[in-house]
Amino acid sequence: MLWIKALHIVFVVSWFAGLFYLPRIFVNVAMEENATSRMRLYIMAHKLYRFMTILSVPAIGFGIWLWAGYGIGRGPGNGWLHAKLFIVALILGYHHACGSLLKKLMAGTCTRSHTWFRWFNEVPVVLLLLAVILVVVKPF
User: Fold this and answer.
1) CA angle, corner 12, sides to 7 and 13, nearest 5?
2) What's the CA gap between 103 and 97, in Å, rounded?
3) Which of 21, 38, 48, 92 is least enclosed by beta carbons within 10 angstroms?
4) For all residues of the chain together, what is the average pLDDT?
């Protein structure tokens, strides 16, 4: 079980590295006026999003393995897991929103400001904080 838990943590951390960095690229795109530089940022963002999507699959897969294979979070007093699964659903929604914003940015139809993207960039920090607290503290 410890190997599965270790792999789950590694893939979650790797996925979150992308979730932290991709919106920061969006900030730079929103501020960039040079078309060549903006195109370079689009390419970086697209490659990062594709790699993040690949990393999310084993992160979720190992999490499911921990739950289904080892029974983590089963039984009474494990309400924290339900809350964590809700946070995971929000993280997946955020990931999807990043992909949608990337498509809009590349199409030139996104009108969000760099300030909006700076705030958007903080969302995964809050989601990760909540998930870690739920897993470590198990408040309910």
Assistant:
1) 100
2) 10
3) 92
4) 95
Cβ distance 121 to 27 under 8 Å? yes
- Provide the token pair at 33: 């006026």
Q: Helices 123-137 and 2-31 meet at what angle, rounded to 10?
A: 160
Q: Is the dihedral of CA 62, 63, 66, 69 positive or negative?
A: negative
Checking if the pLDDT of 72 tops 80, the result is no
The residue among 47, 50, 46 whose CA lies nearest residue 102 is 46
Q: What is the DSSP letter of 122?
A: T
Nearby residues of 135 by Cβ (< 8 Å), 6 or more positions away:
80, 84
Which ranges constitute the DSSP H helices of 1-140? 2-31, 35-70, 79-107, 114-120, 123-137
Contact 88, 12 (CB under 8 A): no
pLDDT in tens, 29-58: 999 999 999 999 999 999 999 999 999 999
**Domain boundary assignment for the chain:** 2-137
Q: Report the residue count for the chain.
A: 140
Asked if 105 and 29 count as a contact pair (C-beta separation under 8 A), the reply is: yes
